[in-house]
Amino acid sequence: MKTIKYLWIAMALAATPAYAEEDTVQESRHAGDDVENAAKPPRKKSDLVKKKSDLIRENMTLKMELDSLREELAKLQDEMQTLDSMEVELLDVYDENEDKLAAGMTPEKYDADVSDSLLNIWYLQQKIAEAPDTEYDMDTVRFSSNVPDSVYIERIKAMNSFIDLPYNQIVKNYIVLYSEKMKTQMEQVIGLCSYYMPIIEEIFDEHEIPLELKAMAVIESAMNPKAVSRAGAKGMWQFMYSTAKIYGLDIDSFVDERLDPVESAHAAAEYLKDSYRIFGDWNLAIASYNCGAGNVNRAIRRSGGKRAFWDIYPYLPRETRGYVPAFVGALYTMTYYKEHGIQPKAVEMPVHVDTFHINKMLHFKQVTELTGVPLQELKNLNPQYKHEIVPGNEKEYILRIPYTFTNAFIDHEDSLYTYKASEYFNPVVIKKIKEGGDGERIIHRVRSGEVLGKIAIRYHVSVSQIKRWNNLRSDNIRIGQRLVIYRGGKGPVTASSSQKAVSQPNPPHKSTVPADAEYTVYTVKSGDSLYLIAKNYPGVSAQNIMDFNGISSRIKPGMKIKIPKLKP
């Protein structure tokens, strides 16, 4: 509606005639008017004077209306710029900066289709799936509690935080949300905190940043090291691909260190230190983790140069405004969960863990079968290895195992790497992984002014690769066109039919799945995509699932979809 109003005002301004201050009535100079004018009686001078005064008055009225319209147009333009800031300004800043100061401003993060804030992803995607009847508009809700404000204030003060922790109705809303409205979910989160927080605290202490920042992991991922957002952010600290690479996290066909709780925590600490160097305020550094330094700097400029969070609050993107209050609410709940009757759920993770440096290819199943370490424990402790393979032949990597199995690992270390090596490292399987058939796949929407060369540079791929992945016969692309990109060039050798469909807006398509095929019912989980789901069902593609269910690629947690049973 605002856009329509904006266009209407623009059209009105364009169509409004410009009246001069000394407008006068002129006789028609067209030859065809002479006959008609001759038939009319001559007008009196008083009539002309009266007409002139009317025009002057009308001119003044129109000028006032014009000024009013221009003022409203400027206001709407400013408002629209604010709403679009996550897509426009951050892209500009990203293009201009290639160092750490641009971290968090990756173009894919702020695409119009995926501009969810990480807070909303955590709350809506992960938590609503568990409690579908509990949804709140945190911009308008006003929670009440049996706990008096004075008690909240005293408790926050008693936390003796190095970071300034404000208290107001907005902060109270998030305190009540975490400590009362979402008690069931927080029991799981607090349980995970008992295991992961000591690790994070040790890392943050090493980097000499406030330990209270650990609460950000609750907001980002609900302490889930395997969390994946719809925007493509991954891990406990929800790093986007480009930002992760800037901060030294390895991502390739075998490894994604965004999922490593230890390595990603180091990267998060470095990011926050950089943000603090920019702003000199931890609340602003926290806000920039959500929306990037560009938006925070813009809010500072709009506020007239003020540098306190609540002073720039009205000028921040809507999603970011709730991020610092959510941080306070999460930190409060982590500290006072007992006072609110929250019982942490037990987490089945080993108390003591040992680490080994791996310099050869090693499969989890080799470790499991020779040492007895449960496979699931290896996965839980080493979520960064995407195919249960440690690619130690590429570079040295770390493997974490429960301390109780340390001796068994040492006893079998010489034979681990050769045990069933031909089976677990089948050349065909390894080749498929290296080619990136299961790698980082994204969809890029072409913007105005973009050409294939510019897009290729952004994603570190070649123009020929983009053309091959999308079945393009020329370098011509259209604004709004969607292109399949495999980061770093780790993509399949040929384009698949589903990729061809992306590069053509409305391709003819006929389902290859029989309507009466047998199927399995699958309930969509947080972080799922049709591509990831299809990987678990041999012979089934994302397109097969969409055809069989008559749906688009947009799915949400809790949705039940049918997976057709097809032969590989």
Index terms:
49% helix, two-stranded antiparallel sheet, mainly alpha, 8 strands, 568 residues, 26 helices, globular
What is the secondary structure topology, with strand pairs?
Blueprint: H1 2-15, H2 34-39, H3 45-83, H4 85-96, H5 118-130, H6 149-158, H7 169-181, H8 183-206, H9 216-221, H10 241-246, H11 261-279, H12 282-291, H13 293-302, H14 309-312, H15 318-321, H16 323-336, E1 353-358, E2 361-363, H17 364-371, H18 375-381, E3 389-391, E4 397-402, H19 406-416, H20 421-424, H21 427-435, E5 441-445, H22 452-458, H23 463-470, E6 482-486, H24 497-503, E7 519-523, H25 530-535, H26 542-549, E8 560-564
Antiparallel strand pairs: 1-4, 2-3, 5-6, 7-8
Describe the 3D structure:
By secondary structure, the protein is mainly alpha-helical. The chain contains 26 helices and eight strands. It has helices at 2-15, 34-39, 45-83, 85-96, 118-130, 149-158, 169-181, 183-206, 216-221, 241-246, 261-279, 282-291, 293-302, 309-312, 318-321, 323-336, 364-371, 375-381, 406-416, 421-424, 427-435, 452-458, 463-470, 497-503, 530-535, 542-549; strands at 353-358, 361-363, 389-391, 397-402, 441-445, 482-486, 519-523, 560-564. The strands form four sheets. A two-stranded antiparallel sheet has the order 1-4. A two-stranded antiparallel ribbon has the order 2-3. The chain has a two-stranded antiparallel ribbon with strand order 5-6. Helix 8 (183-206) crosses helix 11 and helix 11 packs across helix 12. The longest helix has 39 residues, at 45-83. The radius of gyration is 30 Å and the shape is globular. The model is unreliable at 1-40, 81-134 and 495-510 (pLDDT under 50).
